[in-house]
């Protein structure tokens, strides 16, 4: 089955690509400082209702009623000291985002601390939309909705690219396209430590994937730090191996693409290895209540992002877009048992990453935001929740207008004004608006915004005011 | 039935579509037999030792191992690498990537037995009927745990509602997909727009029908429990009227009856043949089959010419004997990138891999930095290692609207990790893996002093003679500079010939 790929345009001969290059040139000339955008993608659909929890008594009563057996007890919550109380609402973050064995052990802040300190903002009820949508419009299907709502792979793709599965142009990549030529080596403009994701794919930008320990070198091929290698005792074989894996000259498209990935891998490893210096002083990782180390893949990934940012001048990077991820959020069951650990991992990794940006002196220049396939149902299925839509997310960084509840607090009620069934939230803020706000902070001009967020013209509010 | 004779490269190519890898002897034998006789022989092969039986026989039911998943990897690699019913095993691997259960997402005791049993169910039905297969996988404890059908209960006064996970994925991934299809697998458009097959109400309605299921009665937590089909507790099943798609189930229904109605409906849906058939083609033959090829295969799913729908043997034979499968393509858009598991097993089986102890302790090879970046039964979610519709961004493939699922896990990290892992195992399989697995290079050693003979033999076995002239020259020039004096020299030459061949892009893309 052949699919068309919509806005994806390959090849430099198209007028649009020429336009991008010209814009890119202009942007490059004005960029003298460093900026980075970091997407923390929570795969599976994070349960927003137990992440950012209503704390004022009316709000909590509403939450407790709809969540019943899976509600977090109010006694375990500490209200955020927010500068604003939209609609009279107060919120608390989940206990694992308020204190964590890791943060107390490592004397670092929690996400709640960062919120109260002004470095983290909460964005309420954000989700995939094509245009602002009311409940009546949703019920009547009278406006265009994102396709394949509630489907994991399609909503992951739509969050990242405004396209269902099969999309090839992410808004992270779109942003990178506009600024990449200011970078010495475009390879390092868009980097993923969190797996293959369309977020970082641009028209010309290619997402470069790296492991949590840096680039993996291919053994026994000639490299700057391996001048006379031997493959099974043969120098000739070692040289032949490098030629075979990087020099494919045939016409088969799959063979060509495979080789392009290998060639990029080999070339980038040379640069990255040299540029990555000593590790940061900031420690990354999580411990359990007894102080024993536990796995935290998100912390491992953000540590690598921090190391890369530290190496930015060796990479010639002025503008970078990063992608990291954590899986396991699709908690149809075992939600009370499993969600806390996931939230602890998010808390520890993000607060440690913020501390790393402070260590590097770039905290005002790095903005981190969370994202997920969708929120979940506020109503439980007994021990978990099902696929939802609108969700609450975090935006973190020195430039962020922190200590603020952005967006519109939703009513959590079956058949409530924001409910589209079983406590699934109709988003009141769109991912498009979040993307546009982040892109604007990153330096994308108003005229270029539609190149990054094609639907932005559908919204009158193009900037959510998330930054100071 | 008259069949065009195949040559040795043709036999090697056929075996790359139908097995986990073949030795020179097997390639020669297949060339003599021909495709249809080989298929007949494979279809007639009895089921071997089940995963469940093997795990028990090796003592992996020792009480200390109750929460360990490692033995699953042992039994899976054992079956894929050594079981003689190779076609059945390949089909099991293909089905495991469509009807996905990942042991990484099964949270119970005795997961090797649970997920091993799941593979046994796939194997028992691989040459049977798709309708039976659907029912049997639905009732496995493994699937029950993986997609939460186990413990799914009807709505009650506490406010809980049925769990929708299995209902959604049963439709989206296991039967009809998201988009209405023509019989040739292309999307059925109305005013130029694709049509959704189901909406949220269908998921909710289907979830109601799938309530009540739990581990079988008499649960005692032993491994056998995880190989026993689930049981429906009447008191937990939603007996009220429910509907989904065009199916209306009246009040007073029971769990098993409702399940049968559900599966009958999804099995009969016109999407299922093209949806499943196209993915089977992608797993075995090529990533971008023509709509006509898909249509021919889907037609056999609908009716195997004896009036039977869902006949797996006929479906598999149709996929493999179709003219598009049997013809070497000449388009630059053709082929499929062999997934890392198959590249590794192709090398291992080409050279007679054995585990003298019979333990096969090969382990989880998922790590892309240091291993294959893929391991059977260990995808990160129900969406498999890669999507059937994956389009790699910024590529000529994307410009041509072609899909390349296996490129989804091909990253700057994984390509290096793969090459390093293969260098190590080609040099020393046992040492690299910490196991007793060994391969046998004897036949190649006998010709290792002759560069052209060595290179040619390796290319036939590992790449069905697909290497380009320039790759051949590179390999032979390198060999030409290596001494042939000692046994150690000859072994190095064998390893170089093998490693350089399998590192070539042409060997990785099957076409």
Mean pLDDT figure of chain B:
96
Helix content of chain B: 40-55%
Q: What is the CA-based Rg of chain B, rounded?
A: 24 Å
Number of domains of chain A: 2
Percent range for β-strand residues of chain A: 5-15%
- Beta content of chain B: under 5%
How many β strands of chain A by DSSP?
13
Query: Which parts of chain A are unreliable, with pLDDT below 50 for 5 consecutive residues or more?
Result: 1-30
Count of separate DSSP helical elements of chain B: 25
Query: Helicity of chain A, in percent?
Result: 25-40%
Q: What is the CA-CA span between the terminal residues of chain B?
A: 25 Å
Structure report:
- The complex is a heterodimer of chains A (468) and B (511).
- Chain A is an alpha/beta fold and 468 residues long.
- Chain A is 34% helix and 12% strand.
- In chain A, the strands form three sheets. In chain A, strands 1, 4, 5, 6, 9, 10, 11, 12 and 13 form a nine-stranded mixed beta sheet that branches.
- Chain A starts with 14 loop residues before the first helix and ends in a 16-residue tail after the last helix.
- Chain B is mainly alpha-helical and 511 residues long.
- Chain B folds into two domains: 23-326, no CATH class; 336-510, no CATH class.
- Chain B is 49% helix and 4% strand.
- In chain B, the strands form four sheets. In chain B, strands 1-2 form a two-stranded antiparallel sheet. A two-stranded antiparallel sheet of chain B has the order 3-4.
- Chain B has 25 helices and eight strands.
- At the A-B interface, α6, β6, α8 and α9 of A face α10, α11, β7, α18 and α19 of B.
